[in-house]
Structures are given as structure tokens and as C-alpha cells.
Design brief:
By secondary structure, the chain is of the alpha+beta class. It is built from four helices and four strands. Helix content is about 35%, strand content about 15%. This is Cell division protein FtsN.
Length: about 190
Amino acid sequence: MDYANRKRPPQRKPRGNASGKKNQAPQRQVPWAMVVLAIVLVLAMVFGLRAISSGNDAAEQVPLQVPAAPTGTQPAVTAEPMPEKPEERWQYIEELENLEVEVDVPERELGPPKLMQCGSFRSQADAERLRAAIALQGLESQIYPSNGGTWYRVVLGPYETKRAAEIDRHKLQRAKIYGCQIWNWNL
């Protein structure tokens, strides 16, 4: 079908009122009282602002007159030198400069060695695959069989502190190896 050359369908005639007039919107009456009130308020505001601003102009135009002092009645003022700076009466400034503070830092108690387990697998091939991914990050891990050889755990460590284990765990997380847990284990 050719839509470009198609003719328009014939238009229907609108139905008219019984009197034959078209539908017209009802005319609204303008509230003249509101219009007059708005004009009066605007004029009052303009005259008020003009009165305020003209009041400042009148004050600025009047020069201030300062009465002149008689020259012979007052004695001449002589400029006295400034008094010397008083001595500081605080002693703590010198005491703090020469004070040495002694702090007792207790020795950090080392807990049990930390081990980090990064995976536990049923097949040794999966455990070897994770161990190879860890080795690519420059870390050494071991595979320990558990439950009579049915599970293979991939373990890093032992670490003396948890902070050392956290450093390695963040290195593995940057390499997208997640799920490593730090435990207080002894092998």
C-alpha cells in the first residue's frame, strides 16, 4: 500500500448545539477589585522605597560641623615614649623546653603463629591450580591433606604476626584471589 500518495479520509462535521453555535469556553470575568488592589500595593511600595532612599540622601548632604577648640585654653600634649615590654612571669615555657618525657612501652606479646588458608578442595588438581596462582604472586603455599586425604587445604604461613598475614592477603586480593582466612593454627 502506498502511504505517501494516500488521500485523507473525509472529515466529519462537528455536531453543533441546538442553537447552531460552536462550543465556546465560558468567558471569565476579571476581578477588577484585585487588579486595583495590586496596583495600589505596587505604588505604595515604590513610594515607600523612594522615601527611604531620599532620607539617606538628605543625611549625606548635610555637612557635619565640629566645634573648634579654643587654642589657648588647653595645655599642649607631649608625646610620651611607650613603656618597656614587661617580663613574662610564666615559668612553664622554660620548663617545657628542657623537659624529657619517659614512656614505658610494654613488649608486644606474640600469640600463636598465624596460618592463612586460601582454599579447601576435594581434588588435589584444584588445590594445585590455586597453589600455582598464589605462586605467580610471589608467595609460597603448601597443600595439606586432611580428613584422611579426602580434602586438600591450600595454606600459607606460618606468620609471626597477624599484620604480616594481612599484607599477604591484600596482595592476593589485588590478584583477585579472595576467600583467604587467617587462623591461629598449629600444624
